[in-house]
Amino acid sequence: MTATMLFQYTVILYCAIWMYFGMEEKLRSLSLSMRKLHKQLFKTLVLQIVSPTISLFIPDFFIIYLPFLDLEIDLPTGIFLCAFTIYPAMDAIIVMCVVADYKKAAKSNN
Description:
Oligomer: single chain
Number of helices: 4
Number of domains: 1
Distance between the termini: 44 Å
Structural class: mainly alpha
Strand content: under 5%
Shape: flat
């Protein structure tokens, strides 16, 4: 499982770096507003990759690998379960907070 996760994150990092440099080259031909939008969408994509890592895989990592350390500790499993269930909401909140048009629309509806 660890090897699979490392492989996946290596591919994700490689593709993100490759896409960032490729995007910088192609964005020069676009207008300023389109450049801002594309950069916001790229930030959204990166945050949407990081959020499941924090809310799904890190708690999963602790649940799977802590028994191998043979420690006598009491973990509050409710926190881990909350982390698992918060991911779908985090995904939508990231888009609404990072993309300026969505943020503006969300603020105007209140």
